[in-house]
Amino acid sequence: MTPSVPQINPDRLHQRIADLAAVGAIDGGGCARLALTDADRAGRDLVCGSMRELGLAVSVDAIGNVVGVRAGRSDGPPVMTGSHIDTVRTGGRYDGNYGVLAGLEVVAALNDAGLTTEHPLAVAFFTNEEGARFAPDMMGSLVYTGALPLAEALAVQGIDGATVGDELARIGYAGPAPVPAAAPRAFVELHVEQGPVLDREGIDIGVVESVQGISWTEIDIRGTSNHAGTTPMSMRRDAGWAAGEIIAFVRELATELGGDQVATVGRIEFFPNLVNVVPNRAVLTVDLRNTDEALLQRAEARLAAHLAALRDAEKVEISTRKLARFAPVPFAPEMTDRIEGHARALGLTTRRMPSGAGHDAQMLAAVCPTAMIFVPSVDGISHNVREYTEPKHIEAGAQVLLAVLSELAGAGLPAGDRNP
Amino acid sequence: MTPSVPQINPDRLHQRIADLAAVGAIDGGGCARLALTDADRAGRDLVCGSMRELGLAVSVDAIGNVVGVRAGRSDGPPVMTGSHIDTVRTGGRYDGNYGVLAGLEVVAALNDAGLTTEHPLAVAFFTNEEGARFAPDMMGSLVYTGALPLAEALAVQGIDGATVGDELARIGYAGPAPVPAAAPRAFVELHVEQGPVLDREGIDIGVVESVQGISWTEIDIRGTSNHAGTTPMSMRRDAGWAAGEIIAFVRELATELGGDQVATVGRIEFFPNLVNVVPNRAVLTVDLRNTDEALLQRAEARLAAHLAALRDAEKVEISTRKLARFAPVPFAPEMTDRIEGHARALGLTTRRMPSGAGHDAQMLAAVCPTAMIFVPSVDGISHNVREYTEPKHIEAGAQVLLAVLSELAGAGLPAGDRNP
């Protein structure tokens, strides 16, 4: 057949998103597919099935990353797109899933048009991007690019006590493909913004120039449990009070540093956790992010100094554990220029911006030219069942992805036809 | 036989304490016998067995309070002593248990001496004094004295979802004796201080003049869960931050009010409780105590005002629930004078003091002349497996209890023989 100009099929794309959202669906329209759970396995099986239906050669590596390759006229490293399909416990249906399924829609569009690209085209989804069950997050892409040793990742124990290696084997996704993998020719990740900027400013496409640096610290405080009624305030070693004081400090720290600095205490536990007992232990996590490495290090130093002061003031013992640490990552200018150019050629409004969230793309950026495409998240709501992106933006993002991947892979389209 | 002067038997008392401590024993020498659990049932069975061995007429009422009565020469209301045998999850072996078992030792001593008192003598233990599983605490004595309707108490749901009524029936302690019960002639409760005062000052016996007022509030905060990396601090409705801020405020409040005011946040929970998600819900408890009702009300008002301000500042919803509220309780002067007199006659040093903890005695004080005897707690450690009271103090407290109960019940001892 004569090759025609590839077009994404909106209905087909929306249907794929709905089908995957039905796996691990929770009240409110969201998804709960924590990494390597049975729900994650079901989601993986669904996407792998679609990959095979589209004629992709599917491979699974030792950390459970899945790559589906569409052959090109020549061999060599593929142009790759992809994201993740694991979710947080109260996740939405677009986070991660959208980028993977839009990648499949690009393949479907090329198939429909009967186009073979010069270079192979790959669609991937990476294991445990969220880090909601196993730390660090972005584990699959870390191992894929050689930034985290496989053995170390497999040994990680989750919040429920299970280990990555055992769970991978249990769900049947400990594959034979080697890691670290050969570097792709280029990598493009399409994702919902997960923040309020594009939605608030009414812009169609975010051209992501960098990813915020991330610092996750678990703080374990030990005091003395004692009767809540008979122990004078001055004689307490209250691990719970110390935890509360850290929560209050972390907010002050972020407000004071200003700029892109954000700080969150999302997880906490008291022991013995009884109304009339002074806690003898408290465990909490602090999530610090900044686009500027120097400022992020300053925030970390300020937190450490505060913990030292608190240790002396309340006579509690405080130990800390780094759960994750990533420096800010700049993307390749030639890639961001390309995304911006195609988006504008398609008549879409664009904005250059950093990513406030961590993404697999930041790991790929270490081994190949990489960039990201953002579409608006209504009210910036993310990691929440109310996460939502309008269909027109879902479609626009996929169109930009098709155009960028077609050019990178060498679909041989006349420039005039590229953006009909 | 000829009546002799009653003497407590130290070895027998220490053995009874050790035997009960073996039920629900946990590492470190403590006990875990949360109210109405299987461990509580086992403890109850052991103490009821001892009561029967001592010839007491044992009755169980509808809320599971157990009363063992030793007949007197005349009928009428008994002189009563007692406490509780339930513990917190990380409880010691003396809290509550000591008062009940010392009461049994008093009965044993009277039996040894072949003495019959004028008035009946009763030893009781009351259900769910700790409130660690079911709120409010002191539930058994509240129902016993008519301060809490039976039906309301039976319907209370515990932190594990079970209800008081179901658990009472399950462990076989929903008894036939009616509540509210007839008022005793007088009530004396012997207890470890659970605070550091007597130990620090090297005093043998605390003559308890009053019990601190207690206010327990559960605070439920609702915000919006959101991505920890992409949500500007200014756009957050962070339930977790609000909780931490309350913890910090409560400490400031207690420090500022000074005096006997204490304030504790012992229990907290975040939802969804993930490192990279802004909590959309936090639930915590605030325990406020003061010996002065006016100051306690001021502390409650200050907390309420602070919650209102926090609600506006962070745009979170905050609802509160009173888990328990007791005004400070003064004890009968003629009873405290009696305790002080007997303690001094026995050559023991004494100190008048308030109780920082809630006790069943404060409920009995509403229906009959009541007071409490305290013995030192080493380092004031309580609600902790390291709770400890020296044997000499355990024995001294029991001797005072014997002397006071003998006089109240009319053992007919010549004054000279009372304290050999």
Automatic annotation (TrEMBL), chains A, B:
Domain of life: Bacteria
GO molecular-function terms, A-Z: hydrolase activity
Record InterPro entries: Amidase_Cbmase (IPR010158), Bact_exopeptidase_dim_dom (IPR036264), Peptidase_M20 (IPR002933), Peptidase_M20_dimer (IPR011650)
Pfam families: M20_dimer (PF07687), Peptidase_M20 (PF01546)
Record's keyword terms, sorted: Hydrolase
Residue intervals of the Peptidase M20 dimerisation domain: 212-309
Family of this protein: Belongs to the peptidase M20 family.
NCBIfam families per the UniProt record, alphabetical: hydantase (TIGR01879), PRK09290.1-3 (NF006769), PRK09290.1-5 (NF006771)
Listed name of the protein: Zn-dependent hydrolase
